[in-house]
Structures are given as C-alpha cells and as structure tokens.
Amino acid sequence: MTGIRRKRSGEAFDTIEPPGNTQLVASVVTITGVVELLGALSGSEVWLLGLLVFLPGAASALGTVRQTTFVAVWTTVVVTASVLLRDRDAGHWFDRLLLILFTLGLAATSVYGCHRRIRREHAMLRLRSTAAAMQRHILHPLPLLTDDVLVNGVYEPLQEDRLVGGDIYDVVDSPFGTRVLIGDVQGKGLTAVGAAFAVIGAFREAAHREPTLTALADALDAAVVRHNSYATHTGDDERFVTALVVGVDAETEVQAVNCGHVLPYVLYDGEVSVPDLDTGVPLGLAELADEPTTVGWFDFPDGATLVLSTDGLTETRSADGTFYPVDERLAKYVALSANDLPQTLHDDARAFADRGGPHDDVAVLTVRRSRRH
C-alpha cells in the first residue's frame, strides 16, 4: 500500500498514521489490477488471486477498522467472483471452496486484529498522555526563567521508553536567590529513577528552607540515604547521586557545591574557563567523607554563560574509544547563543560517536543572568 507515514506521538510510543481513503482505494484497485493482469498473462488467474488474500492483513497493520473492513470485503468479493466465474472445472471445486473459505477467515481475522491494534494504541496514547503530564511536574520543561537567571538546555534519556532517566535538573527561585541543580543517579533502571525523584523532591522543598548551599546539599544527601534505606527493605539496589548545586543572586559571584559531579564551564568574552571547585563525595555517601561539604565561589558576570552537563556528554566516545573533547568543542561554539548551544553540543556529541547515539542519559544546561533582575 502507498501513502503510509509513521507519526511520532512521543518518546515512548509510535503510532501509525493511516492512509487517506482515496489513497487506500487507489492502492487496492491498483494491486487488484496488477494481479488480474499477471493472471491473464500467465493463464493462472485463480491461483494468483491468492495474493489478494494478504491485503486485509496489511490493512489491519496500517489502516483503521473501517478501512480494513473495506479491504476485507473487497478482497472477498473479488476472490469469490473470480473463482466462481472463471474456473468452471468441476474437479477443482474443493480447491475453489478452500480458497474462498481461507479468504473469508483471513478477512475476519484482519478486521479483528485491526480492532485490537487500535484499542491498544489508544490505551498506550492515554498512558503516554498521563506520563507526559507527570513529567511536567517532575522535570519542568525548559527554558526556565527566574528573577536571577534564564536556564535553557536539552535533556534526553538513554532509553526512549522512559520519560525520565537517571539525569536530573531543576531550578528554584528561593528567598535566598535562584538555586540550580543538575545531577546524575548512579546506575540504570526504575530504581535509579526513584532516586532521581527523591532528590528532585528534596531539592524543591529544601531550596526554600535552607539559607546556605551546604545545608541544602546535606538535605539532599539525607534524602538519598532515606531512599536507599527504603530500597534495601524492598530488595532494590542502593544508589548514589552526583550533583552540582549553584546559587545565583544579584552579586557578580555565584556559589556552588560540587558533590562528585562534572565541573561547570563559564563562557565569557570569547573565553572558556573551568571554576576551581572542591569536589566532594556524591549524595548518599556523606557519612564516608573525611571532611564536611564545602561551598566554592567563582565569577559569573552579566553576559557570561554557565554551562552545566552530566557525564552523558563528557563520557561520549567515538568508535575508537576517544572521549568527546568538551573543552575543545566549547571553544569552537563559544560565540553561539545560550539558547542554541545545548542542542548544538548534543548533536555534535552524537556525530562524534559516529551516529551510534548516546551511551548514557544526557543533560546539558546553559545559565545566563536574567534581564528581569
């Protein structure tokens, strides 16, 4: 059949856009004409009609129930009429009857199968819609704007059937300035997503309560510890979470706490720099640390762009095992706007990996001071 296009309804599920009725009728009539012509040329008209038997099956996979019913009726009528009118050899009556019954059976099965497919697709689309609504509350859609910053970026889970992966981010406009979180949950699977939810929920609550970033980081660590305690009782694996928390206010300097995460980059005046931050232990492992959580400061002047990412970007590898050179690529794209930079880096990393796709969840954020401030 012609005119079939795949329509993507979301990251987790594909539906098939059925062909138009005109296209369907034209396709069926054309195929029938070709079969009739081949049958006339070969002298085996009746047996070549067996090819038409499979038309309802194709329609059931691509069309609507009404379209499949039309194809099933058309095929049954054509095959039955051709068998009864053309092959008058009485010795072949059993073969003729068998072909007609086979056509009827496959036609009925195709209509039923199409009905089941449509019903299943509708159920999956409803589930997708519900999951998308949940995602909007779990990971707020980018860009995000506060009185202090404008945050834009790109987020892509490794597995397309998951709306949320192990990478997380959030932005909170708190009484103490804007707090920006980016993190990466160790491991994969649903338990990793559970740890991600735990950190995001704790961040949104504690960012409004804790006046310092160190206290905020301690609250996030406690949330991961509680999650791991629950996971242990349910037989799941414990997780740790690398995270970077940045606090931005009216001052030209910003503060940050790095809990084992990828260091940020500052793009300013055509230059790329990496702030000098102490790297602490990931969230969930604070009890194993020899020293308490510390906060670092670095310059973030008006007009600068702060780039935050997860190791899904920095650990992207080419076919020969070479890591993606983030520093080099940032220097190349330093003139790009903060809106275009995340997607450009993501696309460039995929091309660097020879189109093999990401090896991990990927999150890239750009942070700029807001003009609303």
| Helix/sheet category | alpha+beta
What is the overall number of helices? 10
Instruction: Describe the largest sheet.
Output: 6 strands, antiparallel
Low-pLDDT parts are: 1-15
Summarize the topology.
Elements: E1 5-8, E2 14-17, H1 21-42, H2 45-48, H3 55-62, H4 65-86, H5 93-138, E3 144-145, E4 149-156, E5 167-174, E6 177-185, H6 190-209, H7 213-233, E7 241-248, E8 253-259, E9 265-268, E10 271-273, E11 296-299, E12 305-309, H8 311-314, H9 326-332, H10 341-352, E13 362-369
Antiparallel strand pairs: 1-2, 3-4, 4-13, 5-6, 6-7, 7-8, 8-11, 9-10, 9-12, 12-13
Helix pairs in contact: 3-4, 3-5, 4-5, 6-7
Structure description:
The two termini are 58 Å apart. Strand 5 (167-174) and strand 6 form a beta hairpin. This protein has 373 residues and is an alpha+beta fold. Helix content is 45%, strand content 20%. The protein has helices spanning 21-42, 45-48, 55-62, 65-86, 93-138, 190-209, 213-233, 311-314, 326-332, 341-352; strands at 5-8, 14-17, 144-145, 149-156, 167-174, 177-185, 241-248, 253-259, 265-268, 271-273, 296-299, 305-309, 362-369. The chain has a six-stranded antiparallel β-sheet. Strands 5-6-7-8-11 form a five-stranded antiparallel β-sheet. A two-stranded antiparallel sheet has the order 1-2. The chain is elongated, with a radius of gyration of 30 Å. The chain contains ten helices and 13 strands.
